[in-house]
Every structure is written in C-alpha cells, then in structure tokens.
Amino acid sequence: MHESKENSLPLRFSKTARKDAKNKEIRYEPTWESIDSRPIPQWYDEAKIGIFLHWGVFSVPSYAGAWFWYFWKGPKPVREVVDFMKNNYRPGFTYVDFAPMFTAEFYNPDQWADIFKASGAKYVVLTTKHHEGFCNWATKYSWNWNSVDVGPRRDLVGDLAKALRKKGLAFGAYHSMFDFFNPMFLRDQANHFTTQEFVREKALPELHELVNNYQPDLIWSDGDWMAPSSYWNSTHFLVWLYNDSPVKDRIVVNDRWGSDAECKHGGYLSCSDHYNPKKLQKRKFEDATTMDKYAWAYRRNINIEDLNTMEEVTTLIAQVVSCGGNLLINVGPTKEGTIIPAFQERLKQMGQWLSVNGEGVYATKPWTHQNDGVSRDVWYTSTRADNGTVINVYAIVLSWPESSNLTLASPVTTANTTVTMLGYNTPFKWSPLPNSGLQIQIPAIPFNQLPCKWAWVFKLTGISN
C-alpha cells in the first residue's frame, strides 16, 4: 500500500465520470477505465507526422546520447564514457560543469519552426526535461539547474512554443517523471516507492507548471517505468488535465505514466521506443523513432550513413500510418542551438515528399488491408465518409515496379474504379484480376516527370472493399 500524498498536491478530480447537466461536459474519474475512455482529440489523429527534439545538457558532450551522465556516474559505468571523460576533461570535472557550456547562442526558434513546417510535420515535441533533471524553462522547482539560471539564460520551452504556434504547428512537451540522481527520488526508491517526496515536491509540480504556463497540446511522459502509476499519482494528474486544466479539450498524452500503464493505459500508446508493430492496432499508437539510427541526442561523431535514408523514412511513414499510428521522428539539436545540415536536408526531403503525397497520409484511416498480399512493398491507407464508407484507397508503393505493370491483390474493383498517381495528372489504365485485385499498366514516364523520388502513392477510387 502506497503512502497517499494526493491531498497535499495541487490536484482536482471528480469522484465519478459524469455528464454535467448544465454544460454537458464529460467528467473523468481517477481510474484507468475512465481515463482510457476519453477519445483521442481529432487534431492528433489527423496530424500523422511529428518532430521529436532531444536537447539538454547532454548536448554539450554530445557523445553516447541523452543518458551520458548515468553512463558516466551511474551504478554500472560504461567504460567508453568513463574513458572519454578521462581523456578529454580535467580531473575533478563534474556533469554540472557542462551546464554553462550549454550556450544555445545560435538558437533561433523561428528558424526551427520554419524547418519543421517545411518538413511536413504537424506537431513538435521538445524535451522540457530529460532524466538528467535539467529544465529548459524558468521553473520554480529546479533552482540553478534550468536554462534560465544557467547556460542559455533563456526560456527555451516558451520561445519554441510561441514560434511553433505562429506557424500553425502544435507544441508538445516531453517530460521525464524521474531524475537520475535527485536525492528525493533516490530516497523514494530506497523506500521501495512507499513514499512520494519526489512526486509531491518536484515531478507533479513541474507538470502543473508546464501545463499552466505553456498550455501544451501534447504531454509526452517518460521515465516512469521503475514505479507504478499509484506512486506517480498519474490518474489524479490526468483527471485534472482532462477535467479542469486550461488545455482539457485539446490535450493529448501518451501511455508512460507508470510500470502498470505503459502500452496499456493513458492516451495513445507509445509502448517501447521505435514501436512499429506493422499490423493494425486496436488503439491509437505512435512510433517515436530517430533520424540518427543510433541516438536520440546529437552526436558529434555522427556519420552520414548513420542517418535513415529517405527510402527508410518513407517506409516508416507508410507502415506506421497504414496501421493507424503517427510517426514522431527525432533530431537532436547541438549545444549551440542549431539543427545540423544533414538533419535539415532529410527533414526538407520529407516535406517535399509529403507535399506531393500528403493526401494519402494526413487525416487518413486504416483500410481493410494494411500490406498488400502480393506486392509486399505496398501499404494502404484510406479516406472515409462520416458513415464509414471508403471514399479513396491509397496504395503507397515503396519500390518502383520493375516491369510496366503493378499488381495489387487486395483492392476489389468495380466498373467505376479509377487509378491515378498523386502528383501525376494522367489516369492509368488497369485490368481486373480473376478473383480480386487489379493490374495497373505503368506507362513509360520520363524520370524527370515523376512527381517524387521516393515512394509513389496510387489513388484508387470506386473500390468496393
């Protein structure tokens, strides 16, 4: 039984889920059953593509990722990281000494917003605080370990939130529930999480502060896995968020609210990192993955081949969106506050592809089939009428057909079926296959007249399944 501290926390929640007779407002109760019943806001389901940003003091060493401090000073130090510090920094150097070097002197939130807008993303999630505990905003709960008191000397969170909203992008706040070496957390951990000092004094006050000060559209919770949601008081926080917070109607959350909640409860399911099930899911999910295949934070020793190619990026988009998910793809800014050109180029290419093929991505719904039965490099999406009737089917073809014919086994054609390719005006001829499916006749299209370089989206109308 956990020691309850909820009465001393700034939380408000209803006893039962109900519809208020006066304003017709649904009220949620602090149970997972009630919280899980809340629909995902439409904006998030339709957005499909987001950008993730891992940025903090760990961006100064920019080596071995966002867990650098733990790899160096944790209970099981990583030899590579220990040697890196020994060979490159003076004796007695501490992790705290990195903070003044987190300068962000080239940080231009408006430029970042332009880059992310051009990428085709609809929302951006910034690490407001990672496991190192350093807060990227002017917080009252982390004195001298935040971006206003030390390092950048500015409100990184607030500045980016404003810039994104000017561009029509939604703002998401990543927040780690725990801090690696915070004494209050370590005491709660030593007490087997029967006490909640850290939750009461830091974790939940930070979340309330973020919501009230910046009114994010999304909260991406993390760092929850060591303790159950009852320790974190997660259901009580979420009920306040859904019932009484300033973002109650629009806010979206993930599932990382305790060891008993991950991949089961909360808002959408983020499950494990790089979660790409490649099959239709019963609940909304998100694949949080990285442009750099080996790290979430920027690495100074990154090589160009470490980045996902555009072929790999379009494959991820096709697989995830076809199965009902969103893709949240991460780039790590530098300590100076720049997005390196290699990341910029890949994001720009993603935007170029989406500018042509977004009709088959944004606001789509899963179809009756996700992957084609014959052409395995084909993934399907659809648009539907309010009554659920399929209007259009989109076949995202990852590899250009080697012959002059493209065979699709899954669609059931009718006399009214038409086939076009997004970005190419001329309709394609086709013929039905004996049982189901169709064969599309691909004309000789000059390479310079193809609408895009990676993954081509065929639009099918008049499909009966």
Automatic annotation (TrEMBL):
Class in the EC hierarchy, top level: hydrolase
Record-linked Pfam families: Alpha_L_fucos, Fucosidase_C
Listed EC numbers: 3.2.1.51
Residue span(s) of domain Glycoside hydrolase family 29 N-terminal: 19-359
Gene3D superfamilies: Glycosidases, Golgi alpha-mannosidase II
SUPFAM superfamilies: (Trans)glycosidases
A single MF term (Gene Ontology): alpha-L-fucosidase activity
Catalytic reactions on record: a neolactoside IV(2)-alpha-Fuc-nLc4Cer(d18:0) + H2O = a neolactoside nLc4Cer(d18:0) + L-fucose; a neolactoside IV(2)-alpha-Fuc-nLc4Cer(d18:1(4E)) + H2O = a neolactoside nLc4Cer(d18:1(4E)) + L-fucose
InterPro entries xrefs: FUC_metazoa-typ, Fucosidase_C, GH, Glyco_hydro_29, Glyco_hydro_29_N, Glyco_hydro_b
Cellular component terms (Gene Ontology): lysosome
Domain called Alpha-L-fucosidase C-terminal: residue spans: 370-461
GO terms (BP aspect): fucose metabolic process; glycoside catabolic process
Alphabetic keyword roster: Glycoprotein, Glycosidase, Hydrolase, Signal
Membrane-spanning residues: none
Biological role stated in the UniProt entry: Alpha-L-fucosidase is responsible for hydrolyzing the alpha-1,6-linked fucose joined to the reducing-end N-acetylglucosamine of the carbohydrate moieties of glycoproteins.
Subunit and interaction comment: Homotetramer.
Family: Belongs to the glycosyl hydrolase 29 family.
Protein's name in the database: alpha-L-fucosidase
Originating organism: Candidula unifasciata
